[in-house]
């Protein structure tokens, strides 16, 4: 069955199309950008969203998942949160701290259970998604005492999980997975080139993606930033490389805008899971914009700086 003709989600898609009306418009964003300070911006935002906590995705996820609880591929959208929370739990274990304050939501994991299992090093009872990664990362961390290496290892595992989880999914989730992996790998390769990381580090940190040769990317990174940019200049990610030359912030915006382009296209469907996935991506992007705006307001950034950093939204 074609996902775009899958009528199982027709009611869920209809509900999500109504929810889209609650997303901030370009006009709304302009008003928020024009607010004189952070507190005024947050007050205006609360009035527009009708919520005391407009900077949360938990309620958005609960709504979408509630409409289509049988849609397993939706969970792929939370994998990066799941692996972040695994990192938080492991770091808390090593540092002797409580991990709760470092967790992010929404997540597919039972965070209370995660905290208990990690604190007891009971890796075998963790969900299959993170089980092997958790044990290997703990061994790597305790053997090398290199937190950056362990983080990079977990990040790469998250990307591979996203790619694997999306393999048999909709066109949107497959393209989302590939873009997510490629964009992250390029950023990692660039950072490793700047820091002159050895091949052993890159082998653990680069996930690999059908969109970009893993071995070639590692080789280019090992040769330095100029070699990396030269390699990327003849790929379909040449524009992204140009943005990365400007700044990491501009590169991240470029990556996010590519994913929003996918969501914008997919939202037009009437069937299948794609409009549900697109709505979550749009809500996540809106939250990212609001957090960027909040930080910019706090530090008194000018309008042009704020506008330059805003991600694309539905419209």
Brief summary:
68% of the residues lie in helices and 0% in strands. The protein has 16 helices and no strands.
Give me the count of strands: 0
The biggest sheet amounts to: none
Strand content: under 5%
Average pLDDT, all residues: 93
State the order of secondary-structure elements, H for helix, E for strand. HHHHHHHHHHHHHHHH
Plain-language structure description:
The chain has 315 residues and is an all-alpha fold. It is globular. The mean pLDDT is 93. The chain is 68% helix and 0% strand.
Task: Tag the structure with descriptive keywords.
315 residues; mainly alpha; 16 helices; globular
SSE arrangement:
Blueprint: H1 10-19, H2 26-34, H3 38-49, H4 58-67, H5 79-95, H6 111-119, H7 128-144, H8 147-166, H9 171-195, H10 199-205, H11 214-222, H12 225-232, H13 238-246, H14 248-266, H15 274-298, H16 303-309
Helix pairs in contact: 2-3, 5-6, 5-7, 5-8, 7-8, 8-9, 9-11, 9-14, 11-12, 13-14, 14-15
């Amino acid at each position: 069955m074609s996902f775009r003709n899958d009528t199982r989600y027709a009611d869920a898609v209809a509900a999500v199309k109504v929810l889209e009306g609650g997303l901030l418009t370009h006009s709304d964003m302009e008003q928020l950008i024009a607010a004189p300070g952070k507190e005024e911006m947050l007050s205006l935002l609360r009035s527009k969203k009708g919520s005391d906590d407009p900077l949360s995705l938990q309620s958005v996820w609960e709504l979408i998942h509630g409409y289509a609880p049988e849609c397993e591929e939706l969970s792929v959208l939370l994998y990066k949160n799941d692996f972040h929370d695994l990192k938080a739990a492991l770091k808390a274990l090593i540092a002797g701290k409580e991990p709760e304050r470092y967790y992010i939501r929404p997540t597919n994991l039972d965070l209370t259970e995660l905290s208990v299992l990690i604190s007891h090093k009971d890796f075998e009872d963790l969900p299959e998604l993170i089980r092997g990664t958790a044990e290997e990362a703990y061994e790597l961390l305790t053997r090398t005492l290199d937190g950056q290496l362990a983080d990079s290892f977990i990040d790469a595992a998250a990307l591979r999980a996203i790619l694997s989880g999306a393999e048999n999914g909709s066109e949107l989730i497959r393209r989302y997975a590939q873009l997510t992996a490629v964009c992250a790998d390029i950023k990692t390769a660039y950072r490793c080139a700047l820091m002159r990381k050895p091949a052993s580090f890159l082998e653990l940190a680069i996930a690999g993606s059908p969109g970009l040769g893993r071995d070639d990317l590692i080789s280019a990174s090992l040769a330095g930033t100029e070699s990396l940019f030269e390699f990327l200049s003849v790929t379909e990610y040449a524009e992204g490389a140009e943005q990365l030359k400007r700044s990491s912030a501009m590169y991240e915006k470029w990556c996010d805008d590519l994913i929003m382009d996918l969501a914008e296209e997919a939202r037009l469907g009437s069937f299948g899971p794609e409009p549900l996935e697109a709505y979550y991506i749009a809500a996540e992007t809106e939250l990212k914009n609001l957090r960027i705006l909040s930080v910019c307001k706090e530090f008194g950034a000018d309008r042009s700086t704020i506008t330059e950093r805003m991600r694309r939204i539905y419209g």
